[in-house]
TrEMBL record:
Enzyme class: isomerase
Entries under Gene3D superfamilies matching the protein: 2-enoyl-CoA Hydratase, Chain A, domain 1, 6.10.250.170
Protein name per UniProt: Enoyl-CoA delta isomerase 1, mitochondrial
PROSITE patterns in UniProt: ENOYL_COA_HYDRATASE
Length: 299
């Protein structure tokens, strides 16, 4: 068993993330974490149940859990801590705010900032994706509200998705509706989840799907009443964890490693693409107009 535990924390982590070098940097917080099984940053709350080996991670960036640079950074640090914790086998990702899982990338991080800021922000988005999509743990998204764009990306990174059964809540990659373009690794993640044809159509149209429609083509795996999302996620996790870790952990990268590697190989070029795209005056105008529409919706 000890050998298997080592396998869980070594080989697949190397295979998937390509970011093992950061482990040494997190040793100090990890020691702190050992004595305190709940930890909280400003934007991320983690509750670890030692009896089940399952951590519940809640995003808490009201009002809509916009994925800001701060949230993304805290997310990646927290996930890294769990990843190296031998007692943690599963992660349930959810929102501390009712009605919204995540509104996706915080648009204010992509408006009117410097090229250096855009580069740092995009690197944090990449890091979140590499860690979550490449995680060794069983990952389940408990989608307790709307989940556009980057929120949908996070949910798709997980192994299994449970969503609140309400037509009020929608999920999808709506980037083109903002006049922006989902990068290739967003597209790869959606293709991995629902296949090429649906992805092609969804991405071009920037389609948001109400929960019942999302279930029909497998963008989410299960719908349950809103107040049952967390308990259902815990039950699904127990089922996933009944599979021996070593077998599941060798299987997961068979599918995901080539997708992860594609971004790892061109991270810098992808950052350059993002910075040059987002800095264009026409794109800035589109984003500003979209933000104005969001605010007008309320009046
Ligand atoms: C050669 C070319 C190569 C191409 C290269 C490609 C390079 C890459 C290009 C760029 C790629 C970027 C990828 C982007 C991904 C994203 O995630 S973009 C974000 C998209 N998100 C959205 O569209 C969501 C918008 N929000 C909503 O739909 C709703 O807010 C909600 C989530 C459904 C919640 O609704 P409700 O509860 O009614 O809240 P609201 O009243 O609408 O909002 C409350 C306040 O929050 C603000 N807000 C909402 N979303 C965001 C956000 N994403 N970022 C920042 N702020 C947001 C909203 O404006 C309200 O603000 P106030 O009025 O000040 O209260």
């Amino acid at each position: 068993m000890a050998a298997l535990a080592v396998l869980r924390r070594s080989a697949p982590a190397r295979l998937l993330s390509g970011t093992l070098c950061v482990h040494s940097r997190v040793l100090a917080p990890w020691r702190q974490y050992q004595s305190n099984r709940h930890f909280s940053n400003d934007k991320i709350l983690v509750e670890m149940d030692e009896s089940t080996g399952v951590a519940v991670m809640k995003m808490k960036n009201p009002p809509v859990n916009g994925l800001s640079l701060e949230l993304l950074t805290e997310f990646s640090i927290s996930l890294e801590k769990l990843e190296i914790d031998r007692g943690c086998r599963g992660l349930i990702l959810t929102s501390a705010s009712p009605k919204v899982f995540s509104a996706g990338l915080d648009i204010t991080e992509m408006c009117g900032k410097s090229a250096e800021h855009y580069a740092a922000f995009w690197k944090a988005v990449q890091e979140m994706w590499l860690k979550l999509f490449g995680s060794n743990m069983v990952t389940i998204a408990a989608i307790n509200g709307s989940s556009p764009a980057g929120g949908c990306l996070m949910a798709m990174c997980c192994d299994y998705r449970i969503m609140a059964d309400s037509p009020k809540y929608a999920i999808g990659l709506n980037e083109t509706q903002l006049g922006i373009v989902a990068p290739f690794w967003f597209k790869d993640t959606m293709t991995h989840t629902v296949g090429s044809r649906v992805t092609e159509q969804s991405l071009q149209l920037g389609q948001m799907y109400p929960a019942p429609a999302a279930l029909k083509f497998g963008l989410v795996d299960q719908l349950v009443p809103e107040d049952k999302v967390q308990i259902t996620a815990a039950a699904a996790m127990a089922q996933w964890l009944s599979v021996p870790d070593h077998a599941r952990q060798i299987t997961k990268p068979m599918i995901r490693k080539p997708i992860v590697d594609r971004l790892v190989k061109q991270r810098e070029a992808d950052i350059d693409n993002f910075v040059s795209f987002i800095s264009k005056e026409s794109i800035q105008k589109s984003l500003q107009a979209y933000m104005d529409r969001l605010k007008q919706k309320k009046q």
